[in-house]
């Protein structure tokens, strides 16, 4: 009987990570604050370079997106978050370290789209109840390479 | 005897969808009108926000790309269609609902490339003779969020 | 006993190619010249449209990236290479022909990111010691469609 190997484990993982990020960013850009926050762990941390402190926990993550969505609506702008060049590094503890590039595209109503920010995104993803979730995210802006998340 | 599961079905599907879109957009951007139209079903529908009515069927799809390609050649511009953040949702009937972001990049000869349009692309893909094809496509521009495809 | 097919070969290959490119571009954009050159074969060739001759071999590839990295550091700019719409065509000899779009994003310190160049990237990838490597790369700029790599 042939050995049953876990056939393409990278392929399965890679597709799952890409699908996860697609839904995750669709939620973010739609302003679906609570659903987006649920793609983090309960105590998930998001360290954007523009915040003085990392944002911790789903309630704060939800509040942050809700505020951003209101500001964008008031400004008449749509933002899109596009991740690319996604490198997935499985860790011994089962978590995934993922490094990617993030383009943030801003489009004003009746206006011209622009590349608003170019960033590097470093995530720790974990599996909970079968689903991938972000436990930790650190984002660095290319225009402010010296500005470390959480130290602004 | 071990159970033979369909090992990573999402992975297989996800890779196939990405490969499909890569070839599909390479054809479009090369102005290969007929070959591109063949990646739709015979009665495939493409509803861009800029058209007063959805474009129906391969003959019309071919004619549309041919006209666009001629206009771009006359203007000395190259357009590229880049899909990202691709979320694939298999449906009970075997079709796939796919939501993605589309950047359209325009580059004039000897000029500077620019992000021409930022869009959301919603496709229904089906399988015919083993190949994926677009049965339905609806595209929304971020600069005109209220403009529904086919209602312009 | 059921036949053991190579379950999703495209999926495995596709994920591996994407992961390869992600790491490859992270190395390039970090200015990790030697590590980047090691993702080419020993006699690998890179034909950018801006060079009068193709760059051949790891020593020259390393030198080229080192020089670029120094120039970028002096200019206070970060460059990112983003591949998308990746079409993988396995060849009879086991190599892979891969065609993709490349956005090169430039961000000055404290400045606004811009789409610096839009290119098409045509690679031949081969496997050495289990790892994918670039044996040949030809890049064409959309703003100079008539300029063939190596003929500038």
TrEMBL record, chains A, B, C:
Pfam families: SnoaL_4 (PF13577). This is Nuclear transport factor 2 family protein. The lineage of its organism: Bacteria, Bacillati, Actinomycetota, Actinomycetes, Streptosporangiales. Residues 13-138 form the SnoaL-like domain. Coiled coil: none annotated.
């Amino acid at each position: 009987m042939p050995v049953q190997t876990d056939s393409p484990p990278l392929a399965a993982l890679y597709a799952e990570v890409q699908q996860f990020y697609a839904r995750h960013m669709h939620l973010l850009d739609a302003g679906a604050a609570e659903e987006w926050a649920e793609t983090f762990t309960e105590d998930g941390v998001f360290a954007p370079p523009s915040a003085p402190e990392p944002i911790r926990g789903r309630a704060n993550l939800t509040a942050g997106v809700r505020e951003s969505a209101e500001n964008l609506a008031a400004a008449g702008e749509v933002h899109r978050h596009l991740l690319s060049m996604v490198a997935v590094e499985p860790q011994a503890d089962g978590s995934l370290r993922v490094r990617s590039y993030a383009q943030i595209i801003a489009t004003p109503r009746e206006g011209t789209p622009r590349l608003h920010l170019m960033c590097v995104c470093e995530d720790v993803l974990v599996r909970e109840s079968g689903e991938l979730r972000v436990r930790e995210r650190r984002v660095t802006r290319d225009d402010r390479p010296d500005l470390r998340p959480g130290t602004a």
